[in-house]
Automatic annotation (TrEMBL):
The keyword Transmembrane applies. The chain crosses the membrane at residues 85-106. One of its GO terms (biological process) is alpha-amino acid metabolic process. InterPro entries: Cys_Synth/Cystath_Beta-Synth (IPR050214), TrpB-like_PALP (IPR001926), TrpB-like_PALP_sf (IPR036052). This is Cysteine synthase. Its cofactor is pyridoxal 5'-phosphate.
Amino acid sequence: MRLDAATLPAAARALVERIGRTPLVELTLAELPAGSRLFAKLESVNPGGSIKDRPVARMLLEAWQAGTFARGRRLLDSSSGNAGISYAMLGAALGVGVTIVVPGNASRERLERMRAHGAELVVTDPIEGYDFALREARRLARADPERYWHCDQYSNCHNWLAHYDGTAGEIVAQLAERGLGPPDALVAGIGTGGTLTGAGRRLHELDPALRVAAVIPETFPGIEGLKPYGEPGDIVPELLDEGLIDETCPVSADEAVAMCRRLAALGLFVGPSSGAFVHAALRVATARRPARLVTFLNDGGERYVSTGMWRRD
């Protein structure tokens, strides 16, 4: 289905037109081997403040155009926070009710942003983890299918297609503007798997030698925006193309925060998943020495102030 943007309410159209085409910034860090260059997409400039605006806009607008929300049906999904903000923001602009199941350890700033847009929040026990919120959203959808349309970002094909059609092409074009070819390595995490799958597939088509590294958080306390992966009982997102993954890079919360603080000293104020990505990218560069690496700065650091990650006692 091809969306006709002219059919959108003016507020929604204004937001959608500003999603994507984010800057590609080069990171100059001491650990990079000679000849290696590391680039990152600065996704906090999207109107919802994160990379999740891209897939959420596509998933929600495809459903909206199909008449899914007729007679007051609500959008339902689980989220650790950023997708929830995107759903709430765009839902408000479209006049669509939004219900988000979110783990209780999501930062206060993200919970308040969702509520500010009018989203209904179902907050789950943080001890139960990331996957419990996903299962609870599925339970609610089964229990009341007339009230809820479960977007299910973990299996919705428009999630990864947003990155296949949009994000990857931007990366290639922005590298070409610098006189460079496609990346030799892509470093991304697994939340839903949409970024890794969509961008990874498109970039792999352009260069079959592309290496894809998946960033894996420690199980507890975890890293907001990244889900556990690889242990018995961990839910593997249906849309994740595991065949694209050449290596996994475990990263602790402390390592992610330490990198965020380093990036802040360079003028880049980002959240913990971004710190994890850059930490992992440096390890990939050191071990593999690819010439061009690309990763993502998924959101801004402002929405994590309440977690204490910026406190220096």
